Every structure is written in structure tokens, then in C-alpha cells.
Amino acid sequence: METGSPEHTGAAGDERAGDERVEAEQAGDEQAGAEPGWTGLPPRLLRMRRLLLVVWLGLLTIGLALLLGLLVGAGWAAFALVPLVLMAWGWVMLGRNWRSWRYAERADDLLISRGVLWREETVVPYGRMQLVEVTSGPVERHFGLASVQLHTAAAATDATIPGLDPAEAERLRDRLTELGEARSAGL
Q1: Over the stretch 75-132, which tens digit does the pLDDT of each residue have?
Q2: What is d(CA 90, CA 95) in angstroms, rounded to the nearest whole number?
Q3: Residue 100 near residue 156 (C-beta atoms within 8 A)
Q4: Residue 103 near residue 38, CB atoms below 8 Å
Q5: Is residue 177 within 8 Å of residue 134, measured between CB atoms?
């Protein structure tokens, strides 16, 4: 019920102004909270890491079983199953770790997000980059992968994106270099 008193009119006006302010804040939060266009890593990286896990822990299992069987008896060779348990655990953890890696190119910086238990998000401003490298070791080359390494003025803010397709790695290097130069970086 309206009384027509200035106090009541002011309260209604305050409510409307408050509602408009809340709507504006929510709209701003939605714009600020908009997810950047995240890009995940290719599945070949997961295959490579799982293959390396199987090879190294498989060799460890065989070597440990032979060593324990020959030196202390066949019963002790059962301890060689421990690496197989680690292999099963590592298989799952590598999948979770691979899914956690992603990056996003924004207008002024590059976001890199990773981690399963401890989530880590790195922001690399284009203007701070000093060097962008594409590297690929022999195993990565066999799987058709390359890594992009970003060096900044502070060593603590260096970042790496592993396991990219070589064409994507080169595109990303060229784009980051171009953006760094545009923002007067030391590239």
C-alpha cells in the first residue's frame, strides 16, 4: 500500500535503483565470467604417455621378477606385481592429467590451465613474452607432436604447452610472436 509519503516513494525508488544495479552487476559478472575459448591437447599425447608408462613399468616388472626369483626365491617374485599396480593407477591418472590440460588465446594474454588435484592456471601476457620456441624430441616426433615453450622476463612465469600438433604449434608460435611484437614486447 502506497502512502504517498516522500519516504515511501524514496524507498520504492531505491528498490528500483537497487534492482537495476543488481541486474547490471549480474550482466557484468556474466560478461566477466564468460569462459574463454579453451583448446585441449590432442589424444596422441595421451597415447604416447601411456605407451611410455607401459614400456617402462613393463620392463621394471620383468626385471624385478627375474632378480627376485633368482636371488631370493620364486615366492618373492610376487613383489614384481607392484609395478603392475602402479601401471594401472598411472594409466588412469595420465588420462585425468591429459584432460586437465587446456589453453585459451585471449585478446591480451594466453591462459594455460592444468592439474588434477592442484589446479594451476597461468596467464602469460603477450607483451611480457621474450621468446617462443617449438621443440620436439624423438619420441614426440614419432607420435607427430611438438611443444610450445614461452619464455618471459621472469623465469617463474615461463610456460609450456606440451603435445601439440606440429602445425598448431607453429601457428601458435607465429601468432604469439606477432601479438608480442604488436604490444612492444622484446620478441
Answers
A1: 888 888 999 999 999 999 999 999 999 999 998 889 999 998 999 999 988 888 888 9
A2: 8
A3: no
A4: yes
A5: no
Query: DSSP string of the chain?
Result: -----HHHHHHHHHHHHHHHHHHHHHHHHHHHTPPP--EE--HHHHHHHHHHHHHHHHHHHHHHHHHHHHHT-TGGGGGGGHHHHHHHHHHHHHHHHHHH-EEEE-SSEEEEEE-SSS-EEEEEEGGGEEEEEEE--HHHHHTT-EEEEEEESSGGG-EEEEEE-HHHHHHHHHHHHHHHHHTT---
Q: In sequence order, what are the beta bridge partners of 47? A: none
Cell numbers 504517498 correspond to: 4
- Of 47, 121, 54, 107, the C-alpha closest to 83 is 54
Q: Which triple of cell numbers denotes residue 30?
A: 556474466
Its pTM stands at 0.71
Q: Under 8 Å CB-to-CB from 148, ≥6 apart: which residues?
A: 132, 133, 134, 160, 161, 164, 169, 172, 173, 176
Beta-ladder partners of 87: none
User: What is the percent of the chain where pLDDT is above 70?
Assistant: 79
CA 172/CA 165 separation, integer angstroms: 10
